Amino acid sequence: MKTSVNNKKQLVGLLFGLSAGLAFAVFAWGVDGFVLASAHGAYPWVKFIPGLIISLIGGGLVGWLTIRLQNPVLRLLLWFAFALLLSKLFLWLPIKAAPEIIGWFDDYLGNFLNYPLYSDFNHIQWIGFTVIALISILCGLLENLLVEQAIFSASSFSVAVPLIISFVFFCLAGNTIDGLYNRQIRQPIVAVDELIQFAVDNSDKEVSSEMSRAMHLAAVKTIKELLPLERTLILSNYDQMLGQIDVLVKFNGNWVKCTTVYNQVTFCKLVFDEPKRYYALNSVLFENENV
Questions:
Q1: CA 253 to chain CA centroid, nearest Å
Q2: Residue 285's pLDDT band (boundaries 50, 70, 90)?
């Protein structure tokens, strides 16, 4: 009987951790992927899929071990380690892992996605770690109590309670992480895509000067013949304050760089036609300030 109860507790503990990992991945990278996909972003799920796998494995393991181990200190250390893992992931995935993964599918593009990791990003990581750590430790303190109540409760809904609590807590953590970095580099891509779509939709209409200035239509004037073509967008580069961000737009093999300043598109220019040999791309890229 005791073994059966322990097994049930460990199962609920496992689900508790999986729920936390799922919630974090969905709100830290899943929402980002959905918005990018809607804005013609290239490889929009490149952060979400590996982030989801790692978060589920880490969360499930921590949730299971928390119930299995009887030492309260070890339980808190496990959740603290989980917070450390997630705080490392949220910058490593988009800056280091994503370009590498994209390179597996498109070595032409992946070779030239080299995102800088500025020292100024340390404060972003510390803020993220602090938020995740507080939520993780809270879950570590509550998990055993919540699982005990769920197992011995007469209500059939009781098992869902700890899972909902861990999911809600880590939704908040994931949303915080999204706002700290992903949203900062996603909004310029959305802004460029919206400008292009507005230009296409109004190509045969009279647009007032006020609307033209508000939408920054002049930024795409030099590439207007490319605008109706099928497009994909991807982050090109950014400064250490995430104020100026460059976005690459591919129009059927024609690559355009659009520069944004605090989510306002300032100008777009054709930087190269997709060459057949990499050395040709390399020379053009360096002539155009490391697109």
A1: 26
A2: very low
- Element at 42 (helix H, strand E): none
Q: Calculate what percentage of the chain has a pLDDT beyond 90.
A: 75
Count of other CB atoms within 10 angstroms of residue 205: 6
Q: And the tokens for 76?
A: 């808190």
8 A C-beta contact, residue 220 and residue 199: yes
Q: Measured between alpha carbons, how far apart are the two ends of the chain, in Å?
A: 65
Residue 76 backbone class (left: φ over 0; alpha: ψ -120 to 50; beta: rest):
alpha
Query: Which residues, at least 6 apart from 116, have a Cβ–Cβ distance to it below 8 Å?
Result: 95, 237, 238, 240
Query: Alpha-carbon distance 128 to 187, whole Å?
Result: 19
DSSP, res 40: T
Residue 122, token pair as written in the block:
């340390």
Q: For the CA atoms of 251, 255, 256, 259, what is the dihedral angle to 10 degrees?
A: 120
Query: pLDDT tens for residues 257-283?
Result: 999 999 999 999 998 666 544 434 444
Element of type H or E holding 255: strand 254-261
Query: 290 is written with which tokens?
Result: 């490391």
Q: Which of 52, 46, 32 is nearest to 184 (CA)?
A: 32
* pLDDT value, residue 271: 86
Is residue 248 within 8 A of residue 255, CB to CB? The reply is yes
Measured N-to-C along each axis, helices 72-92 and 2-25 cross at an angle, to the nearest 10 degrees, of 20
Q: Are 14 and 222 in contact (CB under 8 A)?
A: no
Q: What is the structure's pLDDT at 153?
A: 77
Strand partners, 246: 237, 259
According to the model, what pLDDT value does residue 281 have?
Answer: 43
> What pLDDT, in 10s, does the model give residues 25-34?
999 999 999 9
